[in-house]
Amino acid sequence: MGYDIERFVGYVNEGLLCSICRDVLEDPLQAPCEHAFCTACIHGWLVHHSNCPEDRQVIDVALLRPLYRYMKNDLNRLQLHCRNREYGCEMVCSLESIDRHERECEYSQIPCSNAGCTVQIERRNLDGHLAVCEYRSRDCPNGCGFTILSAEDTQHNCVAELRTELELLRSEMICRVEEAKHEMESRLDSQRRHMVQKESILQNEIEELKSQMSRMMSDVRSLMAAERQHRQELEQAELEKREL
């Protein structure tokens, strides 16, 4: 839908009106036949039709283009009243700047920022409303440290609230202790498994060294036996030589 033509000051050129809603163009698009439409209007029309609502020429979404620059400039220069005119705003500004003004307009209806409050209030009156809003929050006057809503004043019990908070802290502490305990046990188990693995590796290495030492002793004994045999042979050869 476009901008209500009743909001505009002075004459509005027919070419700047949407061919569907007949209001002043909002976010305009133009068909190849040069008829202009609000983006929302033409997209809604093409859901059920495949032609221009003015001259019935066939059009497609892909053929729609932005408004000619000179028409866009004419559109942006139009002067109109703020939509909050009925609430007292007397601002008149160009269409190009109306959105920026209305986002900041003191007469805009905005929701109360307090959780749970459904009141819509003029921006200029928001501070006054927040000061008396039944959903406003404040610190407990008894000094318990809790933030309470005015609507809950009669239900707030400092002792009960502190007891609940203490129970929550105790539960949280127990949970953290259990988590720390499980983490330490997990680390100890991991270290224990690592030590067992290292012990097994060292035991295997010791057995291997024992095996190597046993083979070396066997080789030494074999060498000593060979040496005795060789000495005996030499002595026998010496005796035979003397006899000769």
Automatic annotation (TrEMBL):
<dbReference type="GO" id="GO:0043122">
    <property type="term" value="P:regulation of canonical NF-kappaB signal transduction"/>
</dbReference>
<keyword id="KW-0862">Zinc</keyword>
<dbReference type="InterPro" id="IPR013083">
    <property type="entry name" value="Znf_RING/FYVE/PHD"/>
</dbReference>
<keyword id="KW-0175">Coiled coil</keyword>
<dbReference type="InterPro" id="IPR001293">
    <property type="entry name" value="Znf_TRAF"/>
</dbReference>
<dbReference type="Pfam" id="PF02176">
    <property type="entry name" value="zf-TRAF"/>
</dbReference>
<feature type="coiled-coil region">
    <location>
        <begin position="192"/>
        <end position="243"/>
    </location>
</feature>
<keyword id="KW-0479">Metal-binding</keyword>
<keyword id="KW-0436">Ligase</keyword>
<dbReference type="Pfam" id="PF13923">
    <property type="entry name" value="zf-C3HC4_2"/>
</dbReference>
<protein>
    <submittedName>
        <fullName>RNF41 ligase</fullName>
    </submittedName>
</protein>
<feature type="domain" description="RING-type">
    <location>
        <begin position="18"/>
        <end position="56"/>
    </location>
</feature>
<dbReference type="InterPro" id="IPR017907">
    <property type="entry name" value="Znf_RING_CS"/>
</dbReference>
<feature type="zinc finger region" description="TRAF-type">
    <location>
        <begin position="101"/>
        <end position="144"/>
    </location>
</feature>
<dbReference type="InterPro" id="IPR001841">
    <property type="entry name" value="Znf_RING"/>
</dbReference>
<dbReference type="GO" id="GO:0016874">
    <property type="term" value="F:ligase activity"/>
</dbReference>
<dbReference type="GO" id="GO:0008270">
    <property type="term" value="F:zinc ion binding"/>
</dbReference>
<feature type="domain" description="TRAF-type">
    <location>
        <begin position="101"/>
        <end position="144"/>
    </location>
</feature>
<keyword id="KW-0863">Zinc-finger</keyword>
